Fold each of these.
Amino acid sequence: MIDLSHVNAWVFDMDDTLYPREQGLMALVQARINAYVVEAVGLDPQEARVLQRQFLDEHGTTLAGLMANYTIDPEDFLRVVHEVPLDGVEPNPRLAERLKTLPGRCFVFTNGAREYAHRVLDRIGIADCFDGVFAIEDGDLTPKPEPSTFRHMIERFDFEPRSSAFFEDTPRNLEPAKALGMATILIGDGHGKPLGDHIDHIAPDLLDFLNALTFKDAA
Ligand SMILES: [Mg+2]
């Protein structure tokens, strides 16, 4: 049995964590990012994909890689790549119900843009389950897994990392969390990336995992 009774701050990545990857939203965003890179850098789509993967590995996001290597307008990038229809994302009232019963506060910590994050949370029907959303603009466009962005987020929401848990689908984004003392839960299979012992728990489905939690002092 998994005991997270010590946790009073529940921190969630958003994309592919608070809704299943199969709903396809990130694939739409990725396609728009690819088109943006093609245009901004002047590569063909295949080359742009290679560059984009390199940026993700080296900088955490495509945007951070573009900003380090080219002159681009980050606001324009964030607006354009997040202009995606949300029809594929399903409302999840059972998740909303469960988040509201977790003991303590809940937060979103995303490398996505603020306005997009709020649209997605609204669409799922969980916007009112969170005490705060830390989007890419809040970390001065410095994405996870940069440790300073984790420290920013923790300061902003003012919680004790050792009393918190972080849920993420990208394995390496759990590394700084673990180093800070957060309990770490990988949602999904890690996209074929290396896992490692900075991951405390692996859960194929977020809601199933949350529903299986029991709390010592629960009535
Ligand atoms: Mg994610």
Note: Residues 13, 15-17, 169-170 surround magnesium ion (CB under 6 Å).
Amino acid sequence: MNEKIAVFDLHCDTVLACLKQGAELKRNHLQLDLERGLETAERWIQTLAFFIDDCYRGEDAWNHFFDQYRLMRRFLEENSEAIRLWSPTSFPTDPCCQAMLSVEGGAVLGGKLERIGELYRLGVAMMTLVWNGENELGSGIDGCGEGLTAFGKNAVREMEQNGMVVDVSHLNDAGFYDVERLAKKPFAATHSNARSLCAHPRNLTDEQIRCIIDRRGLIGLNFYPLFVNGGQEYAIDELIRHAEHILSLGGERILALGSDFDGADMPAAIPDIKGLENLYQSMIKYFGTEITKDVFFGNAAEFFRRVTRRKGKKENVL
Ligand SMILES: [Zn+2]
């Protein structure tokens, strides 16, 4: 099957994997590279997350971000024919990867709200507030069980004012509902599945899924077996069951992909970005072409067009 597809993936950790392993983005042995991505997708927006563990503090956190950011910038400069920075006003029409930059881990702020504006000016479109532990903003699923801190609440407000999308994946439940109460704009859970099918706290309860549907937010399906069935090898149908469940709650406009490539082990059915062809063909059998295309690209594209459109602000510079 050589039909090329449009792909909008909300989460991968490929930049840090490249940094750790000295690998290139153009071609590598990881789960995602430009060559395989462009063989698979004719239109491709890829969110590339810079991962900042909750344990980083102050300047260490910022330096850790910059190590990844510098590498990404080199990738953009050296592969300009294959990848360019995404902007909310330009959606891809040619065979080129559009890179949406995000930060996974609000520890990057080092406790300084003004860093949000700096990140935004560097091209960071979205931020996951916490990872699994605790940082200045709040707690992840292994944290203390409390919600957002006062700083975390201010960070959400500041992100919204800057046009940066709030990502609630990894937040504990108390933090999720703090965002739900506080946020004026739709928010995303970029790489989380349905907890009623796989009882892992990284997944979303039905009530949380409904909150995101009511706000016309976004949920990205995560391929990691631990979040699909507790950690067993799985056939693609098991992942599709999560999609089916979210759709059954009314999620046909908010469901998207959040692969977690290079941040987690992948199933044999989707070993790397080329495996998206398998998922696409399987999804069509269950849901038909229109919904499958929306999940693969349309819903995320519509969300970012709607949520990140700003008036009177300069476009990202890089
Ligand atoms: Zn993650």
Note: The radius of gyration is 18 Å.
